[in-house]
Design a protein that fits this description.
This protein has about 425 residues and is α/β, with parallel strands linked by helices. It is about 45% helix and about 10% strand. It is an enzyme of class 1 (oxidoreductase).
Length: about 425
């Protein structure tokens, strides 16, 4: 009955117009026996791939730039994965089923090569990270409690102009709500929290280490702070403490929240730097979002942005989106019950740095005024990522796993990468 209702909501128009595949997806959502096929088991697998056999994932932010790449790589590389439950917030015009359909259809060929057997594993769950219990129906919550082995928290408000209250509500309260649900999961192997490399930057040190940093604001001070500054999009630096904007400020708080309240949940924090186009998967140069750094590169290369108050030798810490997704896949396999959390700086500056001048020169050769203050800050400061945990994780892999899940920044050829970046923006974002 549930399956038929979902089909009606989608007006019987789903991916490839193959209603049967999506009907099976929903009707089999309680049946782990459908997770691994005989053909899957006959394929040669790796230790990483084996870890995911028969497991189910619950992801927030799965329709975003990074979330989509993570889902694609899991489906493509780990055939034994059971289900991927996606928390999706419905809109006034679109149900969660139609949003899932749109994601698959309108992702610039990201899911090319996958078939209906892969998409049967995607199960949309209606909800909202800002709501108690994530706004999930009790029946669906019980299903998640029984089936989910891995949680990936990628949902966040990325708007650097969000008010402090808006950013706090999504980035901190949303994380707190998800942790509360996670503590009821019966067979949870890993909780992955997506943070940002820049939430740890300070004026005192240029090196950012893979450790927990003190938050810019403690929970006990939140009510008073929101009462005074919650309406502000640009709170004073005396409050932000060098975090530059409400996004970075609240991500720093949420990271500390995870590290201090996760209990015995096996937990890892991933800190990506500037996420750029793909380097390998599904092909070089894939991108489907105009983030600020892609905009700057495009504006410079087209002559729209001619003067920037920056240091040309500043290291611009880029990391390909597929490398972040692959590190997420790997990190979950290493999580263990502990009062400590594993932290991975998913960044290139400490391993294979590239300067702003080099990046722009390469980009321009192949092919913001309202952001000037922040461009000036990030364009005049460099931070070196200490990525020993990432390096150790990569070195522990077999040759087969390293090939399947590339995420080593030392492999990046910046000349080729930024040429492909330029082509990706021209091909997929600059249609006009």
């Amino acid at each position: 009955m549930i399956a038929m209702q979902l089909m009606v909501k989608c007006n019987r128009r789903l991916l490839f117009n193959r209603n049967k595949s999506f009907y099976n997806a929903y009707s089999n959502m309680r049946s782990p026996s459908h997770c691994v096929t005989e053909d899957d088991l006959n394929k040669k697998t790796s230790s990483i791939v084996d870890f995911y056999n028969g497991k189910s994932i619950f992801i927030t932010g799965g329709t975003g730039f990074l979330g989509k790449m993570y889902i694609r790589n899991i489906l493509h590389r780990c055939p034994g994965i059971c289900k991927i439950y996606m928390l999706i917030r419905p809109t006034s015009k679109n149900s969660v089923e139609s949003r899932l359909e749109d994601m698959i259809k309108n992702s610039m060929n990201l899911f090319e090569g996958l078939n209906e057997n892969h998409f049967m594993k995607l199960v949309p769950i209606e909800g909202d990270v800002t709501a108690p219990n994530l706004g999930i129906h009790p029946d669906k919550k019980r299903l998640l409690q029984e089936q989910v082995s891995i949680i990936v928290h990628s949902a966040a408000t990325l708007d650097i102009n969000a008010t402090l209250r808006e950013a706090y509500h999504v980035n901190v309260i949303g994380t707190e709500n998800l942790l509360a649900v996670a503590k009821d999961m019966k067979k949870l192997h890993a909780f992955l929290h997506l943070s940002t490399f820049y939430c740890c930057m300070t004026n005192e040190k240029n090196a950012i280490e893979e450790k927990v940093y003190s938050p810019p604001l403690y929970v006990k001070d939140v009510p008073k702070t929101l009462e005074k500054y919650g309406h502000m999009r640009f709170p004073p630096q005396s409050l932000l403490k060098n975090k530059q904007n409400t996004y970075i400020f609240t991500k720093a708080i949420s990271e500390y929240l995870v590290s201090s309240t996760h209990g015995d949940i096996p937990t890892a924090i991933i800190r990506p730097s500037l996420i750029g186009c793909s380097n390998k998967d599904p092909y070089k140069g894939w991108i489907d979002v105009f983030n600020i750094h892609s905009f700057i590169l495009t504006a410079i290369s087209n002559g729209f942005l001619r003067i920037l108050n920056i240091n040309k030798n500043t290291v611009w810490d880029f990391i390909p989106v597929d490398y972040v997704a692959n590190l997420m896949i790997l990190a979950a396999t290493k999580c263990k019950k502990s009062t400590q959390v594993d932290i991975y700086n998913c960044a290139s500056s400490g391993i294979n740095p590239v300067t702003i001048l080099s990046a722009c020169s390469i980009f321009i050769s192949d092919f913001v005024t309202n952001k000037k203050n922040q461009i000036k800050f990030f364009g005049g400061h460099s931070w070196k990522a200490k990525s020993d945990h990432v390096t150790s994780l990569i070195n522990s892999l077999s040759d087969e796993d390293r090939k399947k899940f590339p995420c080593d920044p030392s492999d990046i050829d910046w000349v080729e990468y930024f040429r492909e970046y330029s082509k990706g923006i021209r091909n997929y974002l600059s249609k006009n």
